[in-house]
Amino acid sequence: MYFCFGNGKILVKRGDTMKPGAIIKKLREDNKLSQAELADNIGINNSVLSRIESGDRQLRDDELIKIADFFNVSTDYLLGRTTVRNDIETFAAHTDDDLSEEAEAELENFKNYLRSKYSK
Predict the structure, then answer these.
(1) What are 11-64's pLDDT values in tens digits?
(2) Cβ of 25: how many Cβ atoms within 10 Å?
């Protein structure tokens, strides 16, 4: 099962997990930032960021928060604990056209739950 949030890109296949360094690297590349640019923006040394991205160094709590704030994602997202970045503007899931009205209402309730859970 695949999930799409926000911009419509498939974020992750259920069961797949990424390490924090790989997630940070993907976010950085998606935002077309060099390691030096990101490091400068969050106030850490470029070599530290390089080691974090490669998995050679763990994130400190303050670094985790700075990176999450910079990319507007949750710390859980950076840690690979959720596929939800932070804010849900769009939730998409494939459904068959033969859902009952009750099932459609239940799906709508679930979408509202996710919006409230991950709202800023």
Answers:
(1) 444 445 689 999 999 999 999 999 999 999 999 999 999 999 999 999 999 999
(2) 20
Q: How far apart are CA 96 and CA 118, in angstroms?
A: 26
pLDDT reading at 2 higher than 80 = no
Can you list the alpha helix ranges (DSSP code H) found in 60-100?
A: 61-71, 75-78
Hey, how many other C-beta atoms are within 10 angstroms of the C-beta on 60? 12
- Alpha-carbon span 109 to 106, nearest angstrom: 5
CA angle 5, 86, 17 (to 5 degrees): 70
